[in-house]
């Protein structure tokens, strides 16, 4: 039973790390003005709606808004930007993965887009 619990926690950590890495990669594409679509962001929306910190969701929805903006979809852009308004680190529940599970070990756990209110 304990082995199953440990394997499940380990899998969750690796899954979170992989998804966070993918989200950061999309954010890097955004910063470098490399195009991406809403379809590229949707897996991260689906994942971070159920896992991670509110700031992970905030970044995912921000990137979705950026994708819609680049496609000229102003109403959808606004909907995404306004939809994550209350999700900041101040309201965040405890992180499901401990800091040592973070994919960029050795670096600060701070994310450049973390918002606090």
Description:
There is one protein chain. The chain has a domain at 17-87. It is 58% helix and 0% strand. It has helices spanning 2-31, 38-48, 54-70, 74-83. It starts with a helix and ends in a 34-residue tail after the last helix. Residues 88-117 have low confidence and may be disordered.
Which helices and strands occur, and which strands form pairs?
Elements: H1 2-31, H2 38-48, H3 54-70, H4 74-83
Keyphrases for this structure?
117 residues; 4 helices; mainly alpha
For the biggest sheet, the summary is: none
Provide the structure class. mainly alpha
Can you count the helices? 4
Low-confidence regions: 88-117
What is the number of beta strands? 0
For the termini, the CA-CA separation is 42 Å
Strand proportion, as a percent range, falls in under 5%
Helix and strand succession?
Answer: HHHH
Q: Write down the Rg.
A: 15 Å
Query: What overall form do the CA principal axes indicate?
Result: globular
Mean pLDDT: 74
């Amino acid at each position: 039973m304990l082995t199953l619990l440990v394997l499940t926690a380990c899998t969750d950590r690796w899954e979170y790390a992989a998804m966070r890495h993918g989200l950061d990669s999309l954010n890097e594409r955004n910063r470098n003005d490399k195009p991406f679509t809403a379809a590229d962001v949707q897996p991260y929306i689906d994942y971070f709606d159920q896992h991670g910190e509110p700031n992970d969701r905030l970044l995912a929805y921000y990137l979705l808004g950026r994708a819609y903006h680049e496609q000229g979809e102003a109403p959808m852009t606004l909907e995404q930007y306004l939809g994550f308004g209350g999700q900041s680190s101040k309201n965040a529940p405890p992180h499901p993965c401990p800091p040592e599970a973070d994919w960029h070990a050795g670096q600060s756990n701070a994310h450049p887009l973390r918002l606090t209110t």
